[in-house]
Amino acid sequence: MDRRRMTAIGVLVAAAGTAAAVTLPSFAGENPTRRTAPVASDGVAPEVLDALSRDLSLTRDQAARRLKTERWASGTVTKLRGELGADYGGSWLGADGTTLNVAVADPAQAARVTAAGAVPKRVERGVAELDAVKTRLDAAGRAATPDVAGWYVDVATNSVVVVAQPGAEAAGRRFAEASGLPAGAVRVKTADEAPRPLFDVRGGDAYFINNAGRCSVGFSVVGGFVTAGHCGRPGDRTAGANRVAQGTFAASSFPGDDWGVVEVNGQWTPQGVVNDFNGGTVPVNGSTEAPVGASVCRSGSTTGTRCGVIQAKNATVNYPEGTVTGLTRTDVCAEPGDSGGAWLSGDQAQGVTSGGSGDCTRGGVTFFQPVNEILQRNNLTLVTAGAQPSASPAGGGATAPPASTAPATPPAGDATDCTGQVSRTGRIAAGRAQVQPDGRFFRVSGGAQEACVSAPAGARVVLELQRFTGTTFRTVARAGSADGLARLTADTPAGAYRYRVVGLAGAGEYTLAFSAR
Fold first, then answer.
1. Strands lying side by side in the sheet with 507-516
2. pTM of structure
3. Does the active-site annotation cover 192?
4. CA–centroid distance for 250 within its chain
5. How far is 350 from 290, CA to CA, in rounded Å?
6. Known catalytic residue: 258?
7. Would you state the pLDDT for residue 42?
């Protein structure tokens, strides 16, 4: 069936554990967790740019320009798809990521495409007709032999592609012919692909199912998280990587689809970030669907962050366990253990890892279940990077409240009058962040905490107080600077804490002073 997704606003993931309660304020030399990654000024984390640079052989500037083009392309495609109607034949970015191609079944529509800044491509079939062809293959999926790896709509060739194992082209053709489809609408290609679900995960975002199998957390939603459906069935119990009881599968679908929803208990706090597997986290600011040809990065607990491009949407994969349709096909590598992990295009959530073929040594093909369908089907609300979830259960559809306290009003007096028991200095710049004191943390027995930052002239900063929750630091209070000063006060329980100074504009030396009782 036609499984094209609607655009929704949402975000991503890192599961948090129980908090450690301890003693009077004192500095600890060890660091109990990974650092929080700085955020680029355009909302895209530097780690995403680094990963794109590495895997697509781009400079950081080229990666940033590509992401900007892809954001424009996403909006343009949405507009043109509505205007072209049945004549819309699909869209894709060129190999260099700079040219948006839009297929049209009616040559009279070419001028409309050109006016929008895209390149028109004349085709015989609209995308609705291609989807109908693929739907017929989906209906005949049970007849596919193991030699047939799957099938998908390829808008660039205006056809439906059946993927067969090398030497099994005849099996692919027989499968297509048995469906009674017109010869010109289907083509068979060979590839050494044997897709399978990716189990046996480990690492920061790993979780255990019934104390046996392991998978990766996908995106945080209010009250829980989404992941791959092949990881568990409703009623299955989960535990975090620390083996602490975590939650229960509330819903799942596999095969047919490949999505699952886990409701977590009160010890776990879903947050709108993804583990970058480089000691930090990456924020996500939405779930706008990226077009074919766009860059995409995957985070998984086995192989970390890997990037590539989207090759096709509405793909069907013939797993040994059964056929799954509506997946997105990519050239990103993955390995067992990456199942359920998060996919990002820039700072936009795209989906959760389903399965794939190959590995990250020789490369491969990986498929993901688009996240917007999971949200719609289950009435879920994603947790954004700038918000903490409410206490309502997954599926409640509640809007996540703000993540922190409101920006504090600066005190009267000189902005340099920032005093406290502990004082630290540092240098800040837009898009960068520093953890204080000295990249470490401190412990308190509970009670009021006060801090202020004196920002350099012309600079704007945000001061965050973060509490360690077992696997990560969670922001519990935040204050923005005004007139060169940011100040916050928070009443906190016992535990391990740190301050994070984030630069929004300008650069220079700052002073942080804080006290804890």
1. 422-429, 507-516, 447-454, 485-492
2. 0.56
3. no
4. 21
5. 7
6. yes
7. 67
